Amino acid sequence: METVWSTAFLYLFTFLSSIITFYFAERNENRKARCFILLCISIMIPTIIAALRADTVGADTAGYGTLGFKYLMSYRSLDDVFNNSEWLFYTIGYAITRVTDNVGWWLGIIEFLVICPFTIGAWKLRKRLPATFLIALFYFKFYNYSLCIMRQSISCSLLFLAIVLYHEKKYFKMVILALASVSVHSSGLAILLVVIAVEIYLYISAKKNKKKKNRSIIFPVAVIVSYFCFISLVNLFVSKGIIPQIYIERFLPEISGNGGGMSNVLIFESIYRMIYLGMIYLIRDTKTSEELSDMINLSIIGNMVYIVFGIGFGTGTIYRLTETFDFCNLVAISLFAQTRCIRVGHKNVQRGLIMLLAILYWAIVYMIFPGGIGFQTEIFKFR
After folding, report:
1. Burial level of 90, CB count in 10 A (0-12/13-18/19+)?
2. What sign does the CA torsion over 270, 274, 280, 281 have?
3. What is the pLDDT of residue 234?
4. Coil, helix or strand for 117?
């Protein structure tokens, strides 16, 4: 697999196989054993492909993947692991090194920890939105991303499932997953605080019997304030040693004075996010969007932060800070897909157009212009 076309075919075959298997799991949800097996197959197909990839597939694979695995093999005890603020991620890796020296297992388990929580979350939301459609969006938006940005992808996936469990009122499991999210990637702490703030705000608003459509009015204004509060939090965490200084330099260059210029990918991404905001506006008063109002509002926050500060400061790596919110984007887009908001014939035509946009996004960002943000997934090589 050494050309873009053959690589694209491999990815598309992997995505389609997993999506179809998930679809049949939905169709067989009353047959629990068959449904469980199909879900496992759906998760394992992309997991195995990730496990078999070479170090050159994904910019961080050689670092957090191969090199990190070698470091973990040299650790003599768990004491070495617990000295790290992101101890859970390295504890899992340490446990794997006690069993095998094959880094493929490490890469596979990392991808499993990304795909499995999201798949469970999508499955739990299947009564409220088209879950198979949500899974398809996930692969085209995040699979290639997760091959590079591994730790943060796990953290975001765990936090996404925690939000879903909040809706099921499974608070103990929710807290465990939220804490696990932070223990995998320390930057998740600031994101978690934003999520908590949104949940508290919506809870208080509900107690006061305010209409949900009025709640979203405050967010375009609150986003600006939230961002500067977020910056202050990040600076505080850095000063306390909770988050390494490198996060300021790499992901918030407008603070450190290392801001870069605009890129084609940044402009392209911002245009897509404006489309997302338009979709959210059209579904703002639907029943399901009100039930999932926290995810809708988190989606608004993430998109506005990216557009305002990505374009305003030319911060291409702002997507690293909005990834969790982007998971909520997928929920908002799926809700739009099942709502007849625009007159384009049958609802499947509307879904087809949205999926076409998702495929176009994947092709441009990960296949055609991957160098713009350095994912290095356009040429797939097996280990």
Report:
1. buried
2. positive
3. 62
4. helix
Pick 145 or 321 by higher pLDDT: 145
DSSP class of residue 286 equals S
- Can you tell me whether residue 142 is helix, strand or coil? helix
Report helix, strand or coil for 128.
Answer: coil
CA-nearest of 66, 64, 45 to 54 is 66
Q: What is the DSSP string of 69-102?
A: HHHHHH--SHHHHHTSTTHHHHHHHHHHHTT---
Give the residue-averaged pLDDT of 349-358: 89
**Terminal C-alpha separation, the chain:** 11
Model confidence at 172, in pLDDT bands (50, 70, 90)?
A: very high
Instruction: Using the structure block, give the residue that is written with the tokens 């070495």.
Output: 80
In this structure, what is the dihedral angle of CA atoms 97, 102, 103, 104, given to the nearest 10 degrees?
Answer: -130
Half-sphere exposure of 308 toward its Cβ, with a 13 Å CA cutoff? 17
Decide: residue 73, CB within 10 A, 0-12 exposed, 13-18 middle, 19+ buried.
Answer: middle
If one counts every other C-beta atom within 10 angstroms of the C-beta of residue 230, the result is 20
Tally of CB atoms within 10 A around 11: 25
Per-residue tokens: 360: 């176009």
Phi and psi for 69 in degrees, rounded to 5?
Answer: -65, -40
Q: What is the amino acid identity at position 20?
A: I
CB 50 within 8 A of CB 110: yes
Within a 13 Å sphere around the CA of 118, how many CA atoms are in the beta-carbon half? Answer: 30
55-83 tens-digit pLDDT: 999 888 988 888 889 888 888 887 777 77
Whole-number Cα distances in Å, 335 to 93, 201, 341: 37, 22, 10
